[in-house]
Amino acid sequence: MRNIPLGALILGLAGLIPFVWGAATQYSPALAAASGLNPVWLGSYLSLTYGTVILSFMSGVLWGFATRAEGAQATAGYALSVIPALWAFFMVNGDPGAAAVNLAAGFAGVLVLDAAFVSWRLAPAWWLALRIPLTVVVLACLAVPILM
């Protein structure tokens, strides 16, 4: 984690807060009730809504990396970069448990795409050092609505 720019690390860690809060309030109804927050800011609703936004955001990040490529590699990069947003749009709906499974699969898939973009030297060398731990936390948080 030493080579990750501090700003990227801080923002990446801060981006985990809604996932952690959603999992905590899903796991503990007492915490959710004590918070006094509207249900849209709690539990699986928060986790799934925020996760859908972040999965779509990751499409934009990958698109940005694809701009560093040329020719066929650029075309492949652009095509691959839209998959997470389309996945979120079509697959994260319905039953919260099933939606969480699909969202978790989307985040796992983005990590595979991250590795591809790093191997193509389109993403920064430190990218996976940031993305792997963030993805592990996201997947752990999404396990709560899957298992409950």
TrEMBL record:
Spans traversing the lipid bilayer: 46-65, 72-92, 98-118, 125-147
Keywords carried by this UniProt record: Membrane, Transmembrane, Transmembrane helix
Key word Membrane present: yes
Domain of life: Bacteria
Protein name listed in UniProt: DUF3429 domain-containing protein
Protein species of origin: Neotabrizicola shimadae
